[in-house]
Structures are given as structure tokens and as C-alpha cells.
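User: quick one - fold this with pyridoxal-5'-phosphate bound?
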Amino acid sequence: MEIYLDHAATTYTDKKVLKVMMPYFSETFGNASSLHGFGREAQKGVAKARSQVADAIGAKPAEIYFTSGGTESDNWAIKGAALLAGKGHIITTSVEHHAVLETCESLEKAGFEVTYLTVDKDGRVSPEAVRAALRSDTVLISVMTANNEVGTIMPIKQIGAVAKENGIPFHTDAVQAAGHIPLDVNDMNVDLLSISAHKFYGPKGVGALYIRTGTKIEKFMHGGAQEREQRAGTLDTPGIVGLGAAIELAVQDMDKEYEREAKLAKRLSEGLLELPKVFLNGHKTDRLPGNVNISFEGIEAEALMLHLDLEGISVSTGSACSSGSTNPSYVLRKMGLTNEQARAAVRFTIGRRNTASQIDEVIEKTKDIVVRLRSISPLFADKGER
Ligand code: PLP
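Assistant: Sure. C-alpha cells for the protein plus pyridoxal-5'-phosphate:
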């Protein structure tokens, strides 16, 4: 049986979500900008989705802008703030997703200065470090809500308070957090927040950017007058209604699913930690419920992943975007792991369909493979620790 444990890379689209989306491909196919009946029907679906997204994060519908996903939302928030300022300084962290890091790097080439804050061994950045990095020309702070590799949750509320005190717009990439842990833009003190539907059982290629009323950023997509003239492009109505339905369902079931996944994650990490020379990466408690990132010393994670794949078990090494490259995870390196320890890390991310018996099977198979790989590992043999 296939066991999927890579929900941080993407989730399947929930059947209930798919059902809501289907009519928008064929019957309610109008362009949401058209003024006739077909257009108005499509627009109704979009308006409902806008409210669903707003309700899920404690925002107002007018503060939600639909995009093509997390990458676009991150690009828009950061480049939008930078373009408006023209020049200046940005604060972010060294463990952000590439969608944030590469955007910041592109702005450095355009003359902006960027501070990439370091993190502690658990992958957290401190609000004090953010405060210390502030400059008179700081135009934006961007810190992710939860990390995609290790699941560590950042102290967003406190960092937001620092931003607010200093009148600096604060963006958070909540792509991994949305639909999994409670989010409230006011409680979190954020001005800009990115989400992506395919991380919470919605469709791929659709997301949203929350922009607090009064927060100004430049537009990013130029063209038509969609999204109150802030984001041009014909709206992906099936995707947008899917996003709305998916976030509503995720919030409805959040408490129950959080508890279930956290229990399975505990079972998985306790089972795997019975092996010698194995440790859990990320914060012990302030982490996403379904994330278990473990380093198996003396093992190449890619090899473990491929062996698990042969057994029908899907996991990942580092972030999906960097797989294929042989570089160890930059997130784990920034957390202080050695190259060897970072290369030995496997990410298991649990989701809605996983069961306790699947987890037990994964523990058993992983242990077997690790013992086998270690028995032929020069890394391990050299230390005489087989
Ligand atoms: N930000 C984080 C933290 C992510 O994990 C991802 C996707 O893996 C993204 C941004 C990019 O989102 P999307 O795949 O919707 O472009």
C-alpha cells in the first residue's frame, strides 16, 4: 500500500472541495469581471471565497487578494513594499522559503539592502534580533509563520509588535501554517500574509495575499482592473472557490485534526528515536502538528528516501524545491547542524489520510532500512558504531 508522508510538499484536493469547484469549469464558467448573468454568477463564487478566506484569518473580505499561489503572494508582498519605497532596507530570516529568499536577493541586485537574521538551534528567530536589526530606512520585515522543512513556529505576534511599534510593514509567509494552526492577522500583528491552497487540501496554483487596510504596496501584475486594480489577470474562479472551500473545511476540522496529527507525529518520532544516533530537528513543542524531521546519523537521506520509495512510502529530504540538488538543507545548516547531519535528515509530514497502522509500518520499514544502510556505510563504519 502506498503511504504518502509528504504533505508539506503538497496535499491532494479534498473531494468536497473538488465538488464545489466542478461547476465553475463548465456551467458557471463566466468571467468574474463580466457584467452579464454568467459573470455575476462567477463573481458570486469569488465573493463567497473572499469571505471564507477572510473569516479563516480574522481579516475583512476587502483585505484579501487572490493570486496564483504562495510564490506570487510572497513576491508581491516583498517587491510591492520595496517598489513603493524605491530604496531601503529589508529584514528577513535565513531560513525562509526560496520564494522569499530569492525575492530578497533579486532586490539586493536592484540596490536594496537585506538583513538575513540567524536562527537558534530550533530554527527560531528572536523578536530582539529583529529589533536590533531595525534601521531608519527599514521598509519591510518578512518572517515566516512556520518553517516548511522543520515545522518550527516563529514568535510572530512578538515580532509583529516590534514592527508595529516602529511603524514598519510586517509580512509573514503563512503557506505552511494556514489551515493547520490558528491564524488571526490582528492577534499576530501582521500587515501582509501569504497563503496557498494546495497546502491545505485545495487545488494547486491558487493562493491569496492578505493586505491590511492602510498598508500600501505597489501592484505587481499589470494589466486589467481585476482585484480592485491591484492584481491584474482573469480570475481563476474554480481555483478561487476551491481555495475558499478548502480553508473553511480546514478551519472547521482544525482542532480535531491538529490533535490527531500531533499524536501520530509523536508516535512516529518516538518510534524512530529508538534507533541509536538519531535526533529530531526543529522546536520540540512549537512546531506544526504533522512535521517530523529526523537526522539519521551515518545515512545519506537521499538513499533512505529512495529505499522508502521502493516500499511505497513517500517522504522528502529538505524542501521539495531543493531536492535533486546535492546541497545539504540550508535551513538545517543555519540551525547549526553539520553538513553530515543535514544530509542525514528526512522530513515526514503527516496528513488527513494517514493512520496509526501506516505510521507503525513506516517506523518498522525505516528502522530496517537505516540498519541496513548503516551496515554498509563507511561514514558509520569509520566510527565503529555499527
Ligand atoms: N512558502 C512556503 C513556506 C512554502 O512551503 C511554499 C511551498 O512549498 C511556498 C512558499 C510556495 O508556495 P506555492 O507552491 O504555492 O508557490
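One thing worth noting: The mean pLDDT is 95.
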